[in-house]
Amino acid sequence: MGCCNRRCGLIAGAVLGALLAILGGILFPVGDIIIQGTVEKEVILEPGTTAYENWSAAGTKVYRQFWFFDVTNPQEVIQHGAKPVVKEKGPYTYITRYLAKENITFNPNDTVSFLLPQGAIFEPSMSVGPEEDIISSLNLAVAGAYSLIPEPIHTLLETMIKSSNSSLFQSRTVRELLWGYTDPLLKETVGLFAPYNDTFDGTYNVFTGKDDISKVGTIDSWRGAGSLKFWNDRYCDMINGTDASSFPPFVEKKKPLFFFSSDICRSVSASYEKTVDLKGIEVYRYTLLPSTLASPLDNPDNKCFCKNMKTTKNCTLAGVLDLSSCQAGRPIFISLAHFLHGSKSLQEDVVGISPNEEHHQTFLNIEPTTGFTLSFAKRIQVNMMYGPSNVITVLKQVKDYTIFPVAWMNETAELDDETADLFKKELISRIQMLETIRHVLLGTGVAIFVLCLIAYCVVKRRHDKSKHVA
After folding, report:
1. CA distance 96 to 87
2. Do 378 and 337 contact (CB within 8 A), yes or no?
3. How far apart are CA 251 and CA 111, in angstroms?
4. pLDDT at position 234, please?
5. What is the share, in percent, of the chain residues with pLDDT greater than 90?
6. Separation CA 107–CA 109 (nearest Å)
7. Which of 208, 219, 242, 346 has a beta carbon 3.0–4.6 Å from 339's, enabling a disulfide?
8. Alpha carbon distance 159, 455 (integer Å)
9. Contacts of 429 (CB under 8 A, 6+ apart)
10. Separation between Cα atoms, residue 470 and residue 466, nearest integer Å
11. 263 class by beta-carbon count within 10 Å (0-12 exposed, 13-18 middle, 19+ buried)
12. Rg (the chain; Cα; Å)
């Protein structure tokens, strides 16, 4: 009777173990469904969701740090055609994107439109000096006029340069170079980012994700159009992806992420590089590929971005993007910092350029479950071009076209410790708890089932043996 009770108990234990294992197994797909449903609910852009509260407000502080290329031999360049020798000076740091989105309007086609106000506040504690620091740099007006005025009327430009007492290089404060000054040559405001304060980027129109979560944050239109008007080409004028502040949830490593940047007037893609730990949160790091600004010889897709055969050496130059078509004609060339991934000639034409992957690459750190960008570093460089002239005195000794680096910018943001703790508590810890529960149930259930089954077999064998002996 005792033997029978033991066997019945072991059978019951095995059944219990099997039930626990089945429950743990069921929790794997069910748990994924629960997680997916919760995440999809919270990443939709509508009032009351976690995504909307962070998206609509100013949120995490965004900083723009500027490094200028201070020219140490301006007279040698002008008088003898020497290569410019530059020394990096910075950072000069500003708080930007501190203003909440404006004119948020929900539309019936699952989109929401908004304006992004722009402003910059100087942050002395994160800067090497005040905004009044003097930088010896390329004369923006002279370089700009040289590019825009045809060679046959360079005589007119020469007269203008002499009458305004201008030269190829000038000394200006950090504030003037960035945000504008009245130029004696052009008699108007000139600056790398003028005008900026009290201006707006947009209007943006993006999908809320309510009808289709795979499109959440994806840009439907910018400035009222579904494509750009800068490149006169269907491919280059496409607006792809989001604005990079977030992406659709459940990010997959194998798929590139697409985003549009109004700073460079085009869409780009980023590819998975590695998984990193950000304040206890596992994130995927995505970086721009070298092919992003490659010459059309190496990346034929970039052919439509090549507009000037002369300055791009018949479209063989890699690493720069001519933005004149989207900068009201201003001859601005954008590159990665220190001409990273650019042609050797760009790095050799100016002494003092030293690209470094770690310090100069652009990256995004994405939390894969939600698709939220938890930190990023957008590093781009503003350049202008000057070249030889038989008429303009300050350019007579210049031997070839030079794309000159004026300044490079590191725009960064990272979630603070409080937000990181909240993120881990509300999402990561719950996912980990569910993961633990289903593994414990499955593991415990299998262990109980196997042990009870083995014990049952042992008891039964002993019982059968004792009966045979009797």
Report:
1. 26
2. no
3. 21
4. 94
5. 67
6. 6
7. 346
8. 103
9. none
10. 6
11. middle
12. 31
Residues 6+ apart with CB under 8 A from 390: 154, 396
Is 407 in contact with 382 (CB distance < 8 Å)? Answer: yes
426: DSSP letter: I
C-alpha 91/C-alpha 63 separation (Å) is 11
Q: What is the pTM of this model?
A: 0.85
- 143-177 burial, b for 16+ CB within 10 Å, e for fewer? bbbbbeeeeeebeebbebbeeeebebbbebebbbb
- Whether the per-residue pLDDT at 10 is higher than 60: the answer is no
Q: How far apart are CA 123 and CA 90, in angstroms?
A: 13
Contact in structure between 293 and 335 (CB atoms under 8 Å): yes
Q: What are phi and psi of 171, to 5 degrees?
A: -110, 120
pLDDT of residue 337 exceeding 50, the answer is yes
Instruction: Give me the amino acid identity at 402.
Output: T
Handedness of CA 384, 314, 340, 361 (dihedral sign): positive
Please spell the DSSP secondary structure of 138-196, one letter per residue.
Answer: E-HHHHHHHHHS-GGGHHHHHHHHHHTT--SEEEEEHHHHHH-EE-TTTSSEE-TT-S-
Q: What is the pLDDT confidence band of residue 331, given thresholds at 50, 70 and 90? A: confident
Q: Say if CB 300 and CB 328 are below 8 A apart.
A: no
Q: What would you measure as the largest C-alpha separation in the chain, in angstroms?
A: 125
- What pLDDT score was predicted for residue 28? 47
Please enumerate, as own/partner, the contacts of 257-261 that have beta carbons within 8 Å and a separation of 24 or more: 257/286, 257/364, 257/366, 260/219, 260/222, 261/378
The pLDDT value recorded for residue 310 is: 75
Phi, psi for residue 301 in degrees, rounded to 5: -60, -20
Average pLDDT over residues 114-122: 95
Whole-number Å distance between alpha carbons of 51 and 45: 6
- Extract the tokens encoding 341: 């991934």
SS3 261: strand
- Mean pLDDT across 392-412: 95
Q: Are 310 and 333 in contact (CB under 8 A)?
A: no
In whole angstroms, what is the distance from residue 342 CA to residue 346 CA? Answer: 7
**Is residue 366 scored above 80 in pLDDT?**
yes
How far is Cα 415 from Cα 460, in angstroms, rounded to an integer?
Answer: 62
Torsion sign, CA atoms 10, 13, 19, 22: negative
E strand or H helix at 19, and its extent?
A: helix 2-43
Domains of the chain, residue spans:
2-40+429-469, 61-98+120-197+227-415
SS3 245: coil
